[in-house]
Amino acid sequence: MPNKYFIKSTGLIKATGKDFIDYVNRMSTNDLRKFPTGEFRKTVLTTDKGRIIDLINVINIPDRNLILTSYPYTEKVKAYLDKYIIMDDVQLKTTSGKYSLIIVSGEQLKSFAKTTFDIDAEKNKIYKLNDTDILFIDDFRIETLNIICPEEKADQYKELLKQSEMMNCAEYEYARIESGVPEAEGELNENVNPVECGLQKYISYNKGCYIGQEVIARLDSQGKIPKQMVSLVAAFPFKKDDKIILDDAKEAGWVSSVIGTEDKYHGLGFIRSINLDFEKKYFIESSGVKSEIIIIKIN
Q1: How many angstroms separate the CA atoms of 288 and 264, rounded?
Q2: Nearest-angstrom CA–CA distance, 264 and 277
Q3: Quick one: average pLDDT of 78-92?
Q4: Which alpha helices (H) appear in the chain, and where do they start and end?
Q5: How far apart are CA 221 and CA 182, in angstroms?
Q6: Would you place residue 167 in the very low, low, confident or very high pLDDT band (cuts 50, 70, 90)?
Q7: All domains in the chain, ordered by first residue
């Protein structure tokens, strides 16, 4: 089966200053204190209430530092980080041109990186393809090979990837939802904390303070998650922001993303933990019609 790839817009912030890595460590959930040059780390920026501002990739390469953001959130991320720079030697600048993120999925991605780019790719490592383009392998939910490049260079990679199958937006969204990958603005937003949408691997509970740390630490110590992200499947159309209700008509949560296929609709949503029971029946209330929906746990 050939690899598949999808090209999407991404946000990119250039960072300079000797205090940058220390600063972003103090501003986000992951522990970046031991962060070698030539690697990348995922981490979450949170509000003082522990809600998600964005899931970012921090890229540490010899001649520059970069922050890869969700495309809708670039200016918000920069403004948030700029707000708390006081004495730190940190300067942030959004890129002047648009950038693309090329996401390749499939099997034997390391072999693919070797045959296509002559790179022995390893987890957490960043590889410069040229002065502007970089490559890395990510393992968030599913393993993907990722290329960041200026938007005008994306067509060059299409030629390199001609043996792979290019996904359209609907195909990518279906694959993302089926894999339980949260994205902005549906799942990654200020109504949700990082624990609720499965970002625990990017949270350190022993590195010290960051904005929102007390709230997230309390969730961990008490073992109480207000709501949880779940997978949704139905034979009828439903849409983002539809309510998820119990059979007693009690509102339990909402739909955050949805995509339709030929015979089914698939989505992601959030259900309050006090209402979450995978043995119970749930319904979607969409356009005034109440229909049963299947709730599936995301592993």
Answers
A1: 20
A2: 23
A3: 96
A4: 20-27, 74-83, 109-117, 154-160, 169-179, 213-222
A5: 24
A6: very high
A7: 4-178 (3.30.1360.120), 226-297 (2.40.30.110)
